[in-house]
Amino acid sequence: MSGRALRSSRGANGARILGVGAFRPARVVGNDEVAAGIDSSDEWIRRRSGIATRRFADAGDTVVSMGAAAALKALAQSGVDPARVGVVLLASMSHLEQAPPAAPRVAQLIGAHGAAAMDVGAACAGFCHALALADSLVRSGAADHVVVLGTERMSDIVDPHDRGTAFLFGDGAGAVVVGPAEEPGIGPVVWGSDGARHALIAHSRSWLHTRESPDPWPTLRMAGPEVFRWARETVPLIGRQALSAAGVGVDDLSAFIPHQANLRIVEAAAKALDLPPHVAVARDIVEAGNTSAASIPLAMDALLTRGDAPSGGLALLAGFGAGVVHAAQVVALP
Ligand code: UT7
Prior knowledge:
The protein is built from ten helices and 14 strands. The protein has helices spanning 31-35, 42-49, 63-78, 103-110, 126-140, 207-212, 224-246, 263-272, 285-288, 295-306; strands at 14-23, 27-30, 53-56, 85-91, 116-120, 145-153, 171-181, 190-193, 201-203, 220-222, 253-258, 280-281, 314-321, 325-332. A five-stranded mixed β-sheet has the order 1-7-6-4-5, sandwiched between helices. Helix 3 packs across helix 4 and helix 7 packs parallel to helix 8. The relative contact order is 0.19.
């Protein structure tokens, strides 16, 4: 090292979520429509996943446009001028262009001109990963305000004839604005990965295979029961660790907002965590299906819009998905 020490940036004492916004595509798709392609039924889908409906994007609803719509709502709720957004972090597993990333276009559309903008690839756990990064960016001084979004067009990467996934996934986008705060409003993240289990949720083919022969279109495949067991064990574990890292207990929570993968996973985790009755449990999956990286901000928006959880109340978030990867943290609701 040379004799001259580098300066480093200094940020706020804490960071918190200042606003949340959601975009739900107009087209509501019932179980009967998806069941037709997979020899299934409304009864089976409700019983095994809890899902009653999901939304599918129209041709004009892209990963970029849906993400921008959600982010604009989050900005409006936060009262933050888009010009003060220093970073846009976009979590998605269904943006089908290798380049460019989707985030710069979202930054442009929301008026965050010139902001640093990047995509975060952590599948269904992408939102919690990006939120942890946003917290660090604001506290380090690398950014004043950060827009974090999860945006998915899962209908593009799901095979309507695959019995293990066709009924599960839906489309949509959710976003939050993170900014400086006197007190921490985003607790320490508990995160990690297990690449040995990478094949549990994976595309059926890669771009390289597609170059050799364009058919069939690469779609998502999932070892459902194995993923189910892993998620049922992991969510309570990382939930307890995130509570402990934040120095709070289940009695301090107003809401539990896990990734909406399957209602049975949500219920099992709520039970294992021994949540008291006053804690609102997010069950957005019933109406939205599994929207991957978008599911947690969509569910957060729904809880707050319905008045099921108070602004300022503490919520435990827990994401998990392909990789396999996980991330959880406690946040103060906007
Ligand atoms: O978001 C990323 C992380 N993803 C998740 O966390 C998803 C985790 N996994 C799941 O949510 C569940 O595994 C599913 C909802 C995907 C599937 O539910 P399951 O209870 O695990 O079903 P299964 O695959 O164990 O199948 C149970 C039975 C089988 O019949 P038998 O062998 O018991 O006679 C399947 O053949 O249900 C049958 N089955 C179906 N029946 C009607 C499997 N898929 C279907 C279907 N419709 N779509």
